[in-house]
Amino acid sequence: GENVEQHPSTLSVQEGDSAVIKCTYSDSASNYFPWYKQELGKRPQLIIDIRSNVGEKKDQRIAVTLNKTAKHFSLHITETQPEDSAVYFCAASRWDSNYQLIWGAGTKLIIKP
Amino acid sequence: EAQVTQNPRYLITVTGKKLTVTCSQNMNHEYMSWYRQDPGLGLRQIYYSMNVEVTDKGDVPEGYKVSRKEKRNFPLILESPSPNQTSLYFCASSSGQIAYEQYFGPGTRLTVT
């Protein structure tokens, strides 16, 4: 079955710098890759997602890139701000997986003032 | 307001005492799911449901039961809770297929002593 590995487990960056979180997946048939943000004490919320027919997607300061050959996808946050501090989860799914998302273990992002 | 609700939000119980955590959504979503979240392990799916009377096991179903008698409700049942089921539980719903955004409930913090 699918396995998703997420790195790093903790990332500390200076406010204003960029942050990159990487996930690798094992099932080459996976075709949907969402990223969720979970602030402390809150529920996870979708921030961006990408399907396998595109290589990059942007939404203001966040972007996701997908490398299908290497089976990895990354979340990029530019010009980080204090409100970006949270735990970020990646996930992967395939169209015939009976509605199962396989999740990474999460990355705690710390923005230093 | 479109939302997913869970009750109770916090629960402390003893080993072996049956309990039910309720989940309800008002978005007419077909797909609902239960996750548990433990430090360092991310989100692990317990059970999911693709529609009324259609449920299936996720990655960690042992010790849990679910039912989907109505489209809006998806209760999680622990018939004989054990300490290793101490965790943060999230219910989620989405409009149909897994590639759509999942809306999470606020979470239920369960402690089994």
Describe the structure.
- Chain A contains no helices and eleven strands.
- With 113 residues, chain A is mainly beta.
- In chain A, the strands form two sheets. In chain A, strands 2, 4, 5, 9, 10 and 11 form a six-stranded mixed sheet that branches.
- Chain A has strands at residues 4-7, 10-14, 19-25, 32-38, 45-51, 56-59, 62-67, 72-77, 86-92, 102-103, 107-112.
- Chain B has strands at 4-7, 10-13, 19-25, 31-38, 42-51, 54-57, 65-66, 76-78, 87-94, 103-104, 108-112.
- The termini of chain B are far apart.
- Chain B has no helices and eleven strands.
- In chain B, a hairpin with an 8-residue loop joins strand 9 (87-94) and strand 10 (103-104).
- Helix content of chain B is 0%, strand content 50%.
- The chains are: A mainly beta (113), B mainly beta (113).
- Chain A binds chain B through residues 6, 9, 32, 34, 36, 43-46, 49, 51, 89, 93, 95, 97-101, 103-106, and chain B through 31, 33, 40-45, 48, 50, 56, 58, 90, 97-99, 101-102, 104-107.
Shape of chain A: globular
Shape of chain B: globular
Largest sheet of chain B: 7 strands, mixed
The low-pLDDT segments of chain A are none
**Strand and helix order of chain B:** EEEEEEEEEEE
In short:
The complex is a heterodimer of chains A (113) and B (113). Chain A has 113 residues and is mostly beta strands.
Helices and strands in order:
The complex is a heterodimer of chains A (113) and B (113).
Chain A: E1 4-7, E2 10-14, E3 19-25, E4 32-38, E5 45-51, E6 56-59, E7 62-67, E8 72-77, E9 86-92, E10 102-103, E11 107-112
Parallel strand pairs in A: 2-11
Antiparallel strand pairs in A: 1-3, 3-8, 4-5, 4-9, 6-7, 7-8, 9-10, 9-11
Chain B: E1 4-7, E2 10-13, E3 19-25, E4 31-38, E5 42-51, E6 54-57, E7 65-66, E8 76-78, E9 87-94, E10 103-104, E11 108-112
Parallel strand pairs in B: 2-11
Antiparallel strand pairs in B: 1-3, 3-8, 4-5, 4-9, 5-6, 7-8, 9-10, 9-11
